[in-house]
Amino acid sequence: MKKMVGAMMLFAACLLNTPEVHSAGEISQAKAIQLAKRYADGRVLKIDEIKDAYKVKVLQDNGRVVTLRVDKRTGKVTGPGRKKD
Q: pTM for the full model?
């Protein structure tokens, strides 16, 4: 349990020290996580960087795992129930 709390604190510290915007106006992973959590209301399990977006897996409070796509340039979140433009 102590190791888990320590790891969570380290993760949070990394997020706080990560700038919101990367080169070429792209959002950071920390911002992508924040947007995904707002969209799906849950705990982020994993984030992967793909060509023009972040793929974020979120465990919702109801136990469902959803995979979301967060556009690196615009921050737009797409996932189950919403169509991409």
A: 0.66
How far is the C-alpha of 49 from the C-alpha of 8, rounded, in Å? Answer: 21
Distance CA 18, CA 27 (A): 10
Six-digit token string for 21: 């915007």
Tokens of 42: 């849950």
Summarised one tens digit per residue, pLDDT across range 11-46 is 554 544 444 445 568 999 999 999 999 999 899 999
What are the start-end ranges of the H helices in the chain? 2-16, 29-40
Contacts of residue 54, Cβ cutoff 8 Å, sequence gap at least 6: 29, 32, 36, 47, 48, 69, 70, 72
Position 16 scores a pLDDT of 45
Q: Residue 44 has which token pair?
A: 């982020």
Cα pseudo-dihedral 58, 61, 63, 66, rounded to 10? -30
